[in-house]
Amino acid sequence: MQTVRIAGVGLTHFGVHPERTGRDLFAEAALEAITDASVPRDDVEWVHYGNFMAELAEHQGHQGPLMAESVGLADRPATRHENACTSSGAAFREAVETIRAGSADVVLVGGAERMNNLGTAGATEALAIAADELFEVRAGVTFPGAYALMARAYFAEHGGDRADLAHVAVKNHANATVNEYAQFQREISVEEALDAPMIADPIGMYDACPITDGASAVVLTSESYAREHDVDAPVVVAGSGQGGDALALQDRASLASTPATERAAETAYDDANITVDDVDLTEVHDCFTIAEVLAIEALGFYDEGEGIGAAREEETTRDGPRPVNLSGGLKAKGHPVGATGTGQLVEATRLLRGDHPNSDAVPDATTALTHNAGGTVASAVVHILEVER
Amino acid sequence: MTSGAPVRDSGFDDFLDALADGDGYYLECSNGHGSFPPRRACRVCGETDLEQRTLPSSGTVETFTIVRVPTPQFEGETPYVTAITAFGSVRLTGIVRDVDPDSVERGLTVEPSVERWDDDTRRLTFEPR
Fold first, then answer.
1. What is the CA radius of gyration of chain A?
2. Domain B56-129 belongs to what topology?
């Protein structure tokens, strides 16, 4: 089995860019990744692309070839992967498998999402279709509403309150202040978070990720290609895992835990031959503050019911023992849905390589974990990255 | 999206018809896993021999939210309460009616019902007993 290396990474600014098309966003990130990789564009053999809502936002299907064409690779095999918010996480996993299987030596993988052109109501509608149409959406479940249902169930089962969640938002905003790609490069206070308008009780405005346009891309190569072509690619994809669960919350055994993440993490840890204690830095899918709490528990950093105080106790802050979301997370960096999975991998790669503005928080880090979740975590993708210093 | 009478979702709309008539049911496999139609195989164990069981006439709210930012379909409805309610071994998700949103609590006993909206869609609702 071929070892997979990250040769190059690229991002657009994550923010409010309603006028920019998906193809334009993706091309910017992909061209940056190809330049960063110092791999000839012509050597790219395959394109995997993640996107969630372009049928609704741009009236555009069949996006695989469109995105390959946007960077001059129209004749390559290209497939679009749709798995709600884990679309590009799943695309990345497929890209890794493509190289591991020996089907290609150089793969371009990424994702993009255009959302702000839909407006708030339109984007809310588009996001809601990640839930079960018959049993959830028709009963008024929105994306924030679904996480609100989980947050209230969590509080009832384990305790904790909105102030605990506010600390997650405060932490992630603080981390994003130096990230030039982030939608919000400003700090917020616990009081501001608690005073913000409610979206779906108990989820307030500052518990929720914003509506974001953006793209991300990664160039992966096989170990043998990197060696032969003397590619500077110190970061290895050491582990990959994916897990699933019932789509509708009502069909889950527990409303306050996310076993799809547990399954994905277990597979990824085994694949990388590490344990949870080996992880130095983590990017988790904090589409809502409660989602970060559920993630750090399901990943094994905390027992069930114990993750709620992690940010408040400064255990997951920048200078804490286990920093989570040094990029600013989805909360502050933004959540261009289809771009988020590979976006996390771009951030984690830079943090490990030492060229991220927050790399100084983790100077000796060798192992990073990324966690990308779809809907209310009916799908989850976890990757483990290791850097050779 | 479609013109004329809406196309039914077989299984699901039959379930709503029964629920509206006070004859709610769910499906159960021999291992006791409950689910709702349309369903050919148990969502947990894959068993295809699913028996129709009577849905309890009332359930208990397990969790809920007060939605204030809606999708376009729910504009004019806010704030509204969506709840997940346990009916014995199965749960359903619905809109809680006839109640001040701020007074809803976990543990509230509700009965399921079905609303028909002006756009001919139907919505599962709960009313406090």
1. 19
2. OB fold (Dihydrolipoamide Acetyltransferase, E2P) (2.40.50)
